[in-house]
Amino acid sequence: MDKKLLLVVLLAVFALPLSLAAQTGSLTGQITDANTGENLPGATVIVEQLNRGASTGLDGEYEIVLLPAGTYNVRYSFVGYRTQRQSITIGTGEVVMNIQMEEDIFGLDDVVVSGYAVTTKRELTGAIAQVRARDVESLDIQSPDQALQGRAAGTRVSNLSGQPGGGVHIRIRGLGSINAGNDPLYIVDGVPITDVDRGGIFGNETANNATSNALNAINPRDIESIEVLKDAAAAAIYGAQAANGVILITTKRGVRGRTTFNISSSVGIVDEIKRHDILEGPEWAQLQYESFEWWGEFVNNPNWRTVAQNNLGGITEEQALAGDVPHYDWQDALMRQGVNRKVDISARGGSDQTRFYIAGGYNFEEGTALNTDFQRFNLRSNIDHQASSWLQMELNLNVSNTTQNGSLSEGFFSGSPHFAGQFQRPTDAIYRCLDGSTYDGDCPRTYNNSLATGFNPLAANELDDRRIKQRQLVANTAFIFNLSRGLTFRSYYGIDYRMTDDKDYRSPESPAGSGLGGYLFEANRQVSNMITNQVFNYFNTYSDVHNVSGLAGFEYRQEVRDTKTAGGQGFPSGLFRTLQNAAEPFSVGGFGSEFRIAGFFGRVQYDYDRRYLLNASIRRDGSSRFGADNRWGTFYSGSVAWVLSDESFMDFSDEWLDELKIRTSYGITGNTSGIDNFASRQLFGSGGAYINQPALTASSLGNNILTWEESATANIGLDWVLYAGRVYGAVDLFQRNTSRLLLDRELPNDSGFTSITENAGKVRNEGIEIELGAVLLDMGGFVWTSEFNVTFQRNELLELNNDPEGNPVDRIGTTYFVGQPLTIFYMRRYAGVNPADGRPMFYDFQNNITYASSFSGDEFDDRRFVGDSAPSSFGGWSNRMTYRGIALDVLFQYNFGQKTYDAFRGSFTDGAYFRRLGLVANSRNRWTEPGQITSVERAYVNSAYPGRSSGFGESTRFLEDASYIRLKNVRLSYTLPTDIVNIVGLRRARVFTQGTNLITWTNYNGIDPELVGRNNASYPQSRTITTGIEIEF
Amino acid sequence: MKTRYLFKTVLIAGLVVFATSCDDLLQTEPQQSVSPEVAISTPEGIRAVYHRGYRAQMFEDYWGQRLVMAGDALADNAISNPVNSGRYTAEPVNGFGTGVGGWNRYLGINDINTVIKHAPNVAALPEAERTRIEAEMLFLRALAYHDLVKVYAYEPNKIVGGWDRGVILRTEPTETVAAADFKARSSVVEVYNQIEADLLRSISLFQQHNGNGPFFANLSAAHALLARVYLYWERWGDAIAQASAAIAAANVTVAGPAAVPGMFQQGPGANPESLFELRMTVSESLGVNVALSAALTPLSHYDVVPSAEFLATLAPEDVRNSIYQSDIENYPDMPPAKSGFRYVTKYEGYVGTHTDNIPLIRISEVYLTRAEAYAERDNAGDAALAVADLNRIRTNRGLAAFGAAPNNLVEEILLERRRELAFEGHRWQDIKRKGLDLVKPAATNTPTLFYQENNQFLARIPVTEVALNPLLEQNPGY
């Protein structure tokens, strides 16, 4: 079947009438602003049928040479101006066409990148959100995906980690999957980018703690635009990989004209966003005595004072009461104010034949935790060359070297500074003198290791070395053939090659390393991702009103992963940090895996006079991951749009209505990302070794019918543009039904297997997205433009698989429940403390008070659905105010209706698990006398609380509303007057200052409401303030 | 014309990717895994699955940790260190549902079944190796099923309340999803019959081609394991015969008193008394959290220490005192609250960091098995033979020989087993198979467990398995 299709494609190629004309002419002219008459450098001229173009130079002039004779539609466009189309006939000579362009705020004709082609907002029938260069390039961010936050409707962006270079959590139109992953497909200039598998090495790379970002290699300054393909009409062309949405990142290209150099440099400071108030030494000791006193009463032990004193390292009750107790600030010792520095240099220019964008960047950012930082060097070179009238070539190269130092391990681990700084008694000293006496600032000092926890996190941070180094090459090249009028063929090749070197070194002097004489674990991972596609593009206009375009192509992708690991232990001292110095190598590992995807795809677009638009796409994908009997799948979409404003019955509105368009679409996309490369196969896998002889074990039973998860998305949208683009907006309603979820079915373990993966189950996402934009004020040179977006979303798990007897399963553990969102919290309900005796109370299944909850998992279970970690609405509000050379950008970003379980604060509140270590200020609210109404129970010595069967456990007590509005970004810039900068030979000079994460309005008591789900001592985001200068010459 | 030619060339080059058939393009082969065909029909594949048979015995839940020491904590040999990591706190107080465990042993049995089924058909394997491999796997299957049945079921002659359920028997590998069906538990006797049959066939195969002891199963070990099984089964005469055969086939003898202190400290080498020992290499170490040395020594968590009652069974002249050493003397930096005990030095990272070999069958056990079988059978002259075997252990441990059989001969033999085989996986099973009431160490503050009344002598089958498999009956009381 597929071979036939192949044959058709081949025949089509060779049967083409290769009518390459020998006769050519050229097109030139000048483009100016219709109001001011100024030259417009950088405007784009496209000969649509040939898909060839040029940009204007400094003088606003353009020239396209070697044009075959004929009549063409020529499109003139420039960001911020309304596009114009001209029908131009080229003969043998030079045709001169001068154009005057009108300003356009909305940019109805701005180019939008869609899969394998470009289009304009006017022609869109699907749901695509766009973020442009000016929103991305100047932000204080390390990876470009962060720029989507608050700017793209339907796209929920959360910074998972404040670790510089850390991961970003992006969910486009909700969560569709339990096991197959919910991350979108990232494509940079046509190359799909996937992250390194870091599972198990640095511990806890989970959905909530991503230490490293897949897009770290890409410098945000190089971005031209980011498109988010949301509905099936937009994304189905990416077939089996598109169900979670697609993010297309396009980098800047060269423009014809004199070479322009741009240098931008900034420096700034990085601060903690918030810090928990903690109990200082004396207060802490008093609380401990209080708890021991009650313990003595409870167990009838009159010697409780002695017990307490022994447990508190000798602090007596008298000292505690008198406040004669030391206090050491571990947070201060572990946290800091960081700095960031950024330098970017680029050169952009070109001739008629060759255009280039060459850039280099350096970015260094320190985190707020000691010894955490991120550093990137990158070089980019994007070249376009017009070789002849029928051949155009592109080459994009990006080379980067990134280094991430620091914690790399968040969560409740002694290696995480955010946890470990709290996981200490405030009475335990940080340092001691070398002679063992108390450190008072005068003596030679060393780390104090005689701590209640036995682990000095400062020593670990300063002596150990945990680092990710990544070298990445993203490159792609394309050859574009103009086969005949309106028909082009694009032959595209791309690679993403990355090498990472992870290092986890524990010095023999540090707490984690001392037991083993120090150890070092290194992992070298290589990901090599190769993609090629061969695409025909066709465009033509018949009878002036029938616009037909289409594409057909083939794509093949191969991804190979290769990992080698080695570890050693026993180092002479912390000065030795390579495996060569290890006395004893203890582990060597290797791992390789591969998957391949092949796809045939096509799209047809038709519109009548740009009034009635039709769009259909289809893709047939095969994946090596699927079962042999289910290897190929078909994905498709169809969409229609109707531009009401162009109808004659709307003539009354012509004066003020630019566009009113209704769009609707439906389509099918797939999700294969969570399927293990060989999940469908019956296999014998590595089973370790016996006496160094390798062993194999039956690792999986085959499932020949295993296949992708499937999403069916329906979308209805309305777009409007009024008053020459000064008021605009869009509303989209969507429903996404995901079926054939990949679920594990349990097998009896006595069979030798624990589970098998199969396709079953359904999830639904639905929502409304609203985008509004307007020029709010335009008076006396003062212009205020504002864009607002909001998304309302709902998610429900509709169905799971069946149990062995064929009955539907209604839950997976205590995490997923049919009829509830995938992000539901299922917990006991906290009822405060009993005012009479200070015991914590919970509601039982009958809503009566209980002190011992039932977790039986049946109708007597006291747990209930108590909230959702996904927001019910989110969005952003961005503003830009300009007056002469001054510009002020302000971005607010918000999430409402989401709950977060603050496990961190819960753990360090008295009454919780770590109560004998550091305590947060919440402990001051503890119950101390009968009749007191409070939420924190009476202080007690451990978690087995009298009259309560189990101590610390998850309940609504620390489940909080994490709705927030955040002043995400403020940027003030001043562009110096041109006549002044021209004197010193510059074309442009600008100074700016900006702040990120400046103010947050929230009722959430934890550190950062942006964290998703549970706060397990994650690395919070930081507040940065930077100042810089940008010059162009 | 030139451009047309060039264009064609480039186009053809660009379409090279089409040249091969698409299904071939999508064919990938895993690198860490092989197809079943490779695993079961080539010598390399079979050998690798065979090695897995051994490797699978060595995880935390089996002989890597719990089978060796959980029983000592459940019984009377061990208590929790008051300052602990939270591990092994329920065993010494016999918390509800706390047993030796190890139900997932079946994951390893499946691989063993694979080898037993397919190895005989691999013509490319030399005949001698084929025979030996089958014999070894039969031995390991018998060992695994005996370990399961002794934990989850009563012994055939010690059944309480008519509860005669054994464990699920699977002797065929699971090769399709359909074969991963639900099975019910066989009776105890059916399980013992299967174990006996496996071992008898293993012995007959070993008699043709013996295994390479002690790190691989071998003839002497198979006899010794069968002797152990008969002892549990209370088939005294068979136990005596098999123990004698094991001793005859063994190339080790009971170590002398001078050798005892270093007996477990052979580095990568074998215990001088081992008939069968699992060899642990550094690269397969279970690591800082669950290795035996992690739980038993101050090298890591140090959660379990010998009980005072157990240490009191060692007379001052007993050379086995050297195995239980002062923690604070050997590890002077220990926190005071956690130290002050004598700890078990049988596994103290002698191969490498948190890496120790694990002796499963020692010659001393075989003598004690035979002694007990003689004493229990008690035919004419058996008592003297029992005393002779018992004295062989006593005299080699610094204790005086018994002249004549003491009145409480069986008790003396059991006491000797307690001393000799402590922290080697025997104590809890010995109490259970004899149907004795368990008097707990005073430090555990736990009342006596009465054999006839206390359901905890049988371990709880994992509740998730019982919930999943409607045919799987849970043990009484859970």
Chain-wise SSE layout:
The complex is a heterodimer of chains A (1033) and B (478).
Chain A: H1 2-14, E1 24-33, E2 44-47, E3 52-55, E4 61-68, E5 70-77, E6 84-90, E7 94-96, E8 99-101, E9 111-114, E10 117-120, E11 128-132, H2 133-136, E12 155-159, E13 168-172, E14 185-188, E15 191-193, E16 223-229, H3 232-235, E17 246-251, E18 257-272, H4 281-298, H5 304-311, H6 317-322, H7 330-334, E19 338-350, E20 354-366, E21 373-386, E22 391-405, H8 417-420, E23 431-433, E24 445-447, H9 457-463, E25 465-484, E26 487-506, E27 519-542, E28 546-569, E29 584-608, E30 612-623, E31 632-643, E32 657-671, E33 683-690, E34 693-700, E35 709-722, E36 727-739, E37 742-746, E38 755-759, E39 762-779, E40 782-799, E41 811-812, E42 816-817, E43 824-827, E44 829-833, E45 840-843, E46 849-850, E47 864-868, E48 873-883, E49 886-896, E50 899-901, H10 903-907, E51 959-961, E52 964-975, H11 978-983, E53 988-1002, E54 1022-1032
Parallel strand pairs in A: 1-7, 1-8, 14-17
Antiparallel strand pairs in A: 1-4, 2-3, 2-5, 5-6, 9-10, 11-16, 12-13, 14-15, 16-17, 18-19, 18-54, 19-20, 20-21, 21-22, 22-25, 23-24, 25-26, 26-27, 27-28, 28-29, 29-30, 30-31, 31-32, 32-35, 33-34, 35-36, 36-39, 37-38, 39-40, 40-48, 41-42, 43-47, 44-45, 45-46, 48-49, 49-52, 50-51, 52-53, 53-54
Helix pairs in contact in A: 4-5
Chain B: H1 2-14, H2 22-25, H3 36-41, H4 43-55, H5 66-74, E1 78-80, H6 105-118, H7 127-152, H8 188-208, H9 219-233, H10 236-249, E2 274-278, H11 287-290, H12 292-296, E3 304-306, H13 308-312, E4 324-326, H14 327-330, E5 342-344, E6 358-362, H15 363-377, H16 382-395, H17 409-420, H18 427-433, H19 463-468
Antiparallel strand pairs in B: 1-3, 2-6, 4-5
